[in-house]
Amino acid sequence: MTDPAVQRLEIELAEIEKKLSDLDLYQDYKALKRIIRRLRSRDDDERPLGSRDDDERLLGRDEAMPMTSTAGNPATMKNAVVEVLKGRASPMATKDIYDWISDHGVEVPGENPTNNLSAHMSRDPRFLSWGRAGWTLTSAIDPDLTEVQGIAADFLASLDDEARQPLLHSISEGRGLTSELDGELLRFARQRMGRHLVNEEKRSLREKIVADGSARERGEGGEA
User: Fold this and answer.
1) N-terminal to C-terminal alpha carbon distance within the chain
2) Hey, where are the domains in the chain?
């Protein structure tokens, strides 16, 4: 379990990083770092540097220019993201992740590379989305099954009779949740927890819904 004091400090650090990313001076600082890195590696780069076009690109005016030969490699992108997020308990914004891997020579292709990076991460179980707050590694999260149990009960209580009765009937017949209700359940839980659920939490949540629904249907859990 992450030390609460460390988690608070990481959240504060993330807020400072976000404020810095909005400053023109900070963007110039990162651009100059990219130029220095390229100049230091010029002996390994066959393309001559120093032209006006090169300076424009290195200053970020042409973000599509490959910094290394790893351009467009999804595995390389995601492995780089893993390195960024290692040891972090608080979420990091997608733009900050993109800036970091870009500064370290990993290009993300596409007209909107930040969105492209987010799409790749959303399909990789190693990453856990916290919505607008950003991402952590899934492995950094200790499943909170106690809270999930309470969320299941609250979700059932939030349903009106029109929605609850078909759910209980479906559960009683062994069909479980419909895909529509399952989506509503996960959205409900995501709003309560402030992040997407890890697989263990999803499984526990669904099992709790079925168990509570079965009890209600049998009249053991109160009136439906």
Assistant:
1) 38
2) 4-138, 145-217
